[in-house]
Amino acid sequence: MLGEARLDPTWDRASILALFDPATGTLDRRVLSDEALYRLELERIFARGWNFMCHDSQIPNPGDYFINYIGEDQMICVRGDDGAVNVLLNTCRHRGNALCRAEQGHARSFVCSYHGWHYALNGELIGVPGQKTYYRGDLDRSRLGLARAAQADSYLGFHFATMAPDAPPLHDFLGEVGRTGLAMVCASGEVEVVDGVQKNVIDCNWKIAVDNLFDWYHVMYSHASAGHSGILDLAGILHPNNQMVMLGEYGHAISGPGVPKEAQAKIDLMSDEERSNAPGPAGLSRLRPKSATELMGPNGVRSLGHPNIFPNLWITLNGMQMCLRLPRGPSKTELWWFTLLPKNAPPQFRQRALRAAIHMFGPAGLLEQDDGENWSQSTRSSRGFSSRRLGQALSMGLGHDEVTEEANGERYIDTCVNEHGQRWLYRSWTEWMAARDWAELEASHSPAPTGRV
Ligand code: FES
Ligand SMILES: [Fe+2]
Asked: Quick one: DSSP state of residue 127?
């Protein structure tokens, strides 16, 4: 599906790699505003990578569908009559009209509103008005089914799709860190997405919204008013000296507060009943059950931080919300907030959790008002002729930390507030952008760091 990239002459491999200097943490501001880089991102980041589509609970029955995006391409994720999930490009093969207009729902088939072409749930073209008369039988329907994602797969009930036939399997793409991040959502049991995805648009580049999720430096300052108002217990969630970072292949990362090893050793000895009665650490309403260790790993389970599944899926509030940062041009990002709650959660818990979800993030979220303003002003300054010539400084903690590697393969950094996650994001981004295809990316990308970082 992916054709050969026609690079803007400004952006050859060397100039893309020079946009971020891992040795100093200096980021070229043009990554936040350049049109040609943005167009290349749609191909080399979004169409090439595995993108989150929806959760099992959103499409439980044949005919249930949910609309999502791969970059700016709209995708229909629909459960077929055979129970399998089809991920189809939402564009009619006649003249390109958007076929499905609702954000989610149930359908027996899809009929285009322009000239009435009719498609089955698996994308097959099953009806064309005037096929015998106007086309005079001269139309090969078998060649004009809806285009499909090159690969679609799921992990723990989360459905993903890629337009790249040569992308590695989802399991390998996620790696330890991506899988640990997704496991955070279901670490305490089965979950379901609450009806109603909150959507809003912020005038910022999508990457600055992504890099902010690793940024535990801004919380005390940017969100001071939320702390003063009492909606946010800053001391309870910050733990600036107990931070834990996990950096995974292809750009995945988890960063934020972590339970210290000694404290986790005590938790590991507790039964599930004792855990459910104990007060939870930093922002957790309760301790994770024993089974979470199998899903997240003995060290991954210590993380209370923010995972990002590269490129743009943030998991927050200890797995209670997920947010997609969808690109809408170099200076615009659409944020989609999914709230996930335990299946059969008691009504009181549900009400409290939903209240927290609505008041923290999303269009009515106190925190997103603070963040959005900073992101849009930082994006805006990257367009100015003089200001864009100044690099951004992402040097916090650079060269001061060590990656611990366990015998089971887990890698993590126990440290204080830092900018490792942001540096890993931009380093990985330059490597994705500089590589023409998966073969080149596989051959040239940095492995997850070891040793001193
Ligand atoms: S554009 Fe869909 S039927 Fe013509
Ligand atoms: Fe924030």
From this structure: E
Q: Encode pLDDT of 257-314 as tens digits.
A: 999 999 999 999 999 999 988 877 655 567 999 999 999 999 999 999 999 999 999 9
Q: In the beta sheet, which residues pair with residue 162?
A: 151
Which of the listed residues 99, 111, 112 should we mutate to test ligand 1's pocket, taking the one with most ligand atoms within 8 A of CB?
112
Residue 97 alpha carbon, nearest atom of ligand 1: 1
Domain with CATH 3.90.380.10 in the chain: 176-452
- Using pLDDT thresholds of 50, 70 and 90, give the confidence band for residue 3: very low
- Looking at domain 54-153, its CATH superfamily turns out to be Rieske [2Fe-2S] iron-sulphur domain (2.102.10.10)
Residue 113 Cβ contacting ligand 1 at under 6 Å: no
* Smallest CA separation from ligand 1 atom 1, residue: 95
CATH 3.40.50.2000 is held by the domain 176-452: no
Residue with tokens 């054709």: 3
Question: If you measure from the C-alpha of residue 209 to the centroid of ligand 2, how many angstroms do you get, rounded to a whole number?
Answer: 9
What is the tens place of the pLDDT at every residue in 333-342?
999 999 999 9
- Residue 78 bridge partners (DSSP): 65, 86
DSSP-based three-state secondary structure for 328: coil
- pTM here? 0.96
Q: Which ligand 1 atom minimizes the distance to the CA of 117? A: 3
Pairwise CA distance, residues 354 & 336, whole Å: 15
Is the model's pLDDT at 102 over the cut of 70? Answer: yes
Euclidean distance between CA atoms 161 and 157, whole angstroms: 13
Peptide bond before residue 311 is cis, with ω within 30 degrees of 0? yes
Residues of the chain with pLDDT > 70: what percent? 97
Atom of ligand 1 nearest to the CA of 92: 2
Q: Say if ligand 1 is within 6 A of residue 95 CB.
A: yes
pLDDT at 135 over 70: yes
Average pLDDT over residues 52-57: 98
Count other C-beta atoms under 10 Å from residue 385's C-beta: 6
Measured from the Cβ of residue 277, the count of other Cβ atoms closer than 10 Å reads 11
Task: Name the residue with the closest Cα to ligand 1, atom 3.
Answer: 115
Q: Take atom 4 of ligand 1 and give the residue whose Cα is closest.
A: 115
On average, the pLDDT of the chain sits at 94
Residues of the chain with CATH 2.102.10.10: 54-153
